[in-house]
TrEMBL record:
It is found in: Secreted. Disulfide bonds join C154-C193. GO terms for biological process: defense response to Gram-negative bacterium; innate immune response. Residues 1-19 form the signal peptide. Keywords: Antibiotic, Antimicrobial, Disulfide bond, Glycoprotein, Immunity, Innate immunity, Secreted, Signal. Residues 27-250 form the Lipid-binding serum glycoprotein N-terminal domain. The keyword Phosphoprotein does not apply. Its main location: secreted. It comes from the Eukaryota. Residues 265-468 form the Lipid-binding serum glycoprotein C-terminal domain. InterPro entries: Bactericidal_perm-incr_a/b_dom, BPI/LBP, BPI/LBP/Plunc, Lipid-bd_serum_glycop_C, Lipid-bd_serum_glycop_N. Gene3D superfamilies: Bactericidal permeability-increasing protein, domain 1, Bactericidal permeability-increasing protein, domain 2. This is Bactericidal permeability-increasing protein.
């Protein structure tokens, strides 16, 4: 039993550590890290405001007065400042955060009783200066493939605490100053790192919002879980994501795998997202499997102003046999992908090649479809890809088209005569319909409430690169 379970653990470990090329890589640059620092420091400052200094009381012998009973109460934090901080990447581990010259202002009340009957009270202010905090934030991948952070090696130091009393006799000041100074330092040093921990761990619910399974439409979803631990170098933190389309609820692997690709050393933007040709091709595979890459074309889908109509009269001009055999009938075309389209990315060039068949029918008055011919269609389209909101979207234009006759039910004909007709059908009917779908877009990897600011998209060899700044609303 034990052997079996350790075997399973081994398997699980092996399957997560095997080098799997990601379909998508998200890179955080130093600029992104600095933006993250701003948000983090603001959160940390809020957290530190919850520091609580307990009341102190006790007694102390002071010569020549004798025993002095004292209490310090209502000590509260008035202000915290974290004016200088720095974050740097720690290769292989995560992020080092150092805060220097931080300060805190506290206010409280003091009360003493001595010589049995003498009571006195007043208030005091404490200025804590030269506070330093340093810690390492470890970034890993959790069981769901989302990033998760934890805190380690936190150290907090208080350089000085200056106490200023209001009211009371001067000899009291000396008594308290030393005592308060020490007690406060202890209390602060004990509380700061736990609060830093809380701030860091407080990031996890936000990181949990990574859309590891992003729904696209009723057919497809994209898996964006991490395929390995984050790759952290001196200059960037890379999250390697699966980046694969799947049929909803039916995760079938395509007959191809992601090729390795590496990002250029650009760092003008906070974030870079590289989406591989694999990701795009997995979409083609999924939609083809879903059986949705087919389209019936009827005359009402051809623009009103077009001289070309989808009827046997028009086609009869090119293939007289059609007009002779099926006079005065409307026609219908079925365009259907024969295999998944293939998408390739070359520098500044996104091209998709689709292999389809076009079956032409005459529509009999009783509704029966009489097949006329089947054409094989090989077409190449250029894709203009763009980012809209948190989606990537595209628009196709026809490049090239190659026709051959598959089957003819209307005798032999030269396929070249249909070239311009089919070209027009693709241009004015098929591609516009595909473009309506593509324009709806496909979700990019994102954390909740994230916005892309001024995204730019470049087509590189084997992947698309989106460079963008980000901000978070809430
Ligand atoms: C884009 O790439 C395809 C092949 O991947 C090629 O056929 C086409 O000519 C290229 N287009 C441009 C404008 O370079
Ligand atoms: C429909 O009409 C065609 C042509 O006139 C004929 O061949 C076919 O049998 C008819 N089908 C039905 C179901 O009536």
């Amino acid at each position: 039993m034990l052997a079996l379970s350790s075997f399973l653990v081994l398997l699980a470990v092996a399957s997560t550590t095997l080098s799997v090329n990601p379909g998508v890589t998200v890179r955080l640059t130093d600029k992104g890290l600095q933006y993250g620092k701003q948000l983090g420091i603001a959160a940390m400052q809020e957290k530190l405001k919850s520091i609580q200094i307990p009341d102190f009381s006790g007694s102390q012998r002071v010569s020549p007065i004798g025993k002095v009973k004292y209490s310090l109460s209502n000590i509260r934090l008035v202000n915290v400042g974290l004016p200088s901080s720095a974050v740097t990447l720690v290769p292989g581990t995560g992020v080092r955060l150092t805060i220097g010259n931080a300060f805190m202002n506290l206010h409280g009340n003091w009360r003493v009783k001595y010589l049995r009957v003498i009571k006195d009270s007043g208030s005091f202010d404490v200025n804590v200066n030269g506070l330093t905090i340093s810690t390492t934030i470890v970034v890993k991948s959790d069981a769901t493939g989302r990033p998760v952070v934890s805190n380690t090696n936190c150290v907090a130091n208080v350089a000085s605490a200056k106490v200023k009393f209001h009211g009371g006799a001067s000899w009291l000041y000396n008594l308290f100053s030393k005592f308060i100074n020490k007690a406060l330092r202890n209390a602060l040093q004990k509380q700061i790192c736990p609060l830093v921990d809380k701030t860091v761990i407080g990031l996890n619910p936000k990181l949990q919002t990574l859309n590891v399974l992003a729904k696209v439409d009723k057919y497809a979803e994209i898996e964006y879980s991490m395929v390995s631990s984050p790759v952290i170098s001196q200059s960037s933190l890379d999250l390697n994501l699966k980046g694969q389309f799947y049929n909803i609820g039916k995760h079938q692997e395509p007959p191809f795998i992601p090729a390795a690709f590496s990002l250029p050393s650009q760092n003008n933007n906070m974030l870079y997202m590289a989406l591989s040709a694999f990701t795009a091709n997995s979409a083609g595979f999924v939609y083809n499997k879903a059986g949705v890459l087919s389209l019936y074309i009827t005359d009402d889908m051809v623009p009103k102003g077009s001289p070309f109509r989808l009827n046997t009269k028009t086609f009869g001009v090119f293939i007289p046999q059609i007009a002779k055999q099926y006079p005065g009938l409307m026609m219908k075309l079925l365009v259907r992908a024969e295999k998944s389209p293939t998408i390739t990315f070359q520098p500044k060039n996104a091209t998709a090649v689709a292999t389809a068949t076009v079956t032409a029918y005459a529509i009999q008055p009783n509704g029966t479809l009489s097949p006329l011919f089947v054409l094989n269609l090989e077409s190449s389209v250029s894709a203009d890809v763009y980012v809209r909101g948190l989606n990537i979207a595209g628009r196709l234009t026809l490049n090239q088209m190659k026709l051959s006759v598959g089957t003819s039910y209307v005798g032999q004909f030269q396929v070249g005569v249909l070239d311009s007709v089919l070209r027009m059908v693709l241009k004015v009917v098929v591609i516009p319909i595909v473009n309506v779908q593509l324009d709806k877009g496909y979700p990019l990897p994102a954390l909740g409430k994230m916005n892309l600011v001024n995204p730019q998209l470049q087509i590189m060899k084997d992947y698309m690169l989106i460079g963008t700044d980000v901000n978070f609303t809430g």
